Amino acid sequence: MSAYRLDKHNAKLMGVCAGLANAAGLDVTMIRVVLVLLTLFALGPVSIAAYLLTGWIAS
Considering the chain, what percentage of its residues have pLDDT values greater than 70? Predict the structure, then answer.
């Protein structure tokens, strides 16, 4: 696992999911799907706030 950085080149919104995918060595689509599923079925607004906070801190 490498250091986490926002990936603005492959970003859809802020680059958080693309950065996580690069750091973990996973497919960015898988990270995005998992985040959406967690938002819808488990964490709700907490995951949205965490996403925005991560994007703000990492930028």
Answer: 97
Average pLDDT over residues 10-27: 90
Kindly state the average pLDDT of the residues 11-19: 90
Asked whether the beta carbons of 5 and 16 are under 8 A apart, the reply is no
Number of separate domains in the chain: 1
Does residue 6 fall inside a structural domain?
Answer: no
**What 8-state DSSP symbol labels residue 6?**
-
Q: Are 55 and 11 in contact (CB under 8 A)?
A: no
In a domain, 4, yes or no: no
